[in-house]
# Entry
Amino acid sequence: MPSPRPSPPARDSTPAGKTPERVAAVRRFNRFYTKRIGVLQEGYSGGPFSLAEARVLYEIGQRDKPTATDVARELGLDAGYLSRILKAFEVRGYIVRETSGSDGRQSLLSMTPRGRKAFAPIEAHTMAEVTAMLEALPDGTQHRITSAMQTIETLLDENAEAPRVPYILRPLQPGDMGWVVARHGTLYGREFGWDHSIEALTAEIAAAFVRNFDARRECCWIAERNGENVGCVFIVKENDETARLRLLLVDPSARGLGIGARLVEECIRFSRQAGYKCITLWTHRVLEAARKVYVNTGFKLTKEWTHDDFGKTLVAETWDLKL
# Structure
């Protein structure tokens, strides 16, 4: 009887003797980064939430109605532990659940205005800390650091080939308003031939939003992709019953990803939770992509008129949505 065929040697692409050295390098980096980023604090940024609670609330706030399963998978949390956190958030009025239309066994999670208000100081503090860390470095070094982080994330992500939303929605950060104003001026001038008046009007709207901001009834979302701003939208108080949607914009580099629809859907959800009865908006017939989003999300055209405020004769429109 022939002897058994020997098994092939185990595959090892690591050069001999390099494994301990590389393990030590990873562990050294982990210790350095943990200390540098400050996650060893007992409380997250000195706020009322633990690190895990803050991460859960952040995921719910920046995702489009995730399920508990989505959050658990993204954060690597035990389902029972996550369930306790979610129940506590519900009791405190930070989140709400709604039954999924496609699967009645699943609940969709979203953050309430109260939750956004509670989380806002922590988000602002974290943004300030990271901004200060980066701004202490030259621009080229900042780019090298963020590129290296993206490389590490991509190489270690076990689900790298799974479909992922290629952008995030987040609240305002320092410098965003300047981007909003400049991008409106640049894009409307380049694509439609509007003059500098559109940039002036955008600056007035942005300044009024900052000066008169009411966190309970107003909000802004910035769409970010690969570290760059690519979209925005604002909800502001028109009166006690009516919210006004303003400054919807999606950069050409990110069109076709559904960002415009997502931004408008966030406005609708926030407005309902804030107690508004309807949303109104002002747009122009020439803005065909935006008009399609309004139609698809249930807005109705209620008024038309012409003007030449931006150096062109334009058909202006009012669209309304009853909530």
